[in-house]
Design brief:
Keywords: Signal, TPR repeat. It comes from Bizionia gelidisalsuginis. InterPro entries: TPR-like_helical_dom_sf (IPR011990), TPR_rpt (IPR019734). By secondary structure, the protein is mainly alpha-helical.
Length: about 280
Amino acid sequence: MKHSLLYLLFLCFASVVAQDADKAKQKAIKKANGLVVEANELASSDDFVLAEMEYRKALSEEPQSVVGAYNLGLTYYKEGNFEEALYRNQQAIKNTVSKSEKHKAFHNIGNILMKNEKCREAVEAYKNALRNDPSDNESRYNLALAKDCAKDEKPPEEEDDKDDKDKDKKEDENKKENKDDGQNKENDNNEGDQDKKDGDNENEDNAKPNDEKEDKGEEGDDKKEQEKPQQQPGQMSPQQIKNLLEAMNNEEQKVQEKMNAQKAKGAKVETEKDW
């Protein structure tokens, strides 16, 4: 009995809480819708700055407001902010179960992708729009335009292959440059070694004549020594002969002077006449 009573009390409490939550949600939705209406009026007057502020207030009151996200996306599209416009339309699609609302959001997404020149993705967006509303001729017409645009667009696989090829080509060029640098460096080293060898050979060549000159000088000295007359035993040298001749001349001169003095002593001396 107690358990049943407690269960009933819990159900009543949960019902009251749910009702309060529902009332709060309804109040938030109502406030959000009022803000959207005000934002729509501002947007129609091309006052996009204030309109954006009101739409954001509406979404802060009710984050799942489809009309708030969709209309904010339109405002961004008119301002040229395609990135934010794409995000808000995707947000509207996520929060709605209405095919009509999904159709409009997908159609707008297709327009945004065409502005960004993403034709293949735009084709898929228009297809989704037609799935939710096959009777819309505007979406069908835009789909045909997107298909024609996609024909001139390279497939993502080819773009990836091109990027890979460019990357491989760049790597090959880098490897080739590194290889050429290595060969040039090796050639420089070889040239340096050759220059060093040539320098050593030149030094050797320069050294050889000096050695030869020294040898030649020594050989010349030996030759001069050999050319000198060798004094034989028992013979007088030229200098000794010269000294001997000078001594003999001196002796002869002394004898001659002595004889002349004796002759002068015995001869008559003539006196001077006396007037």
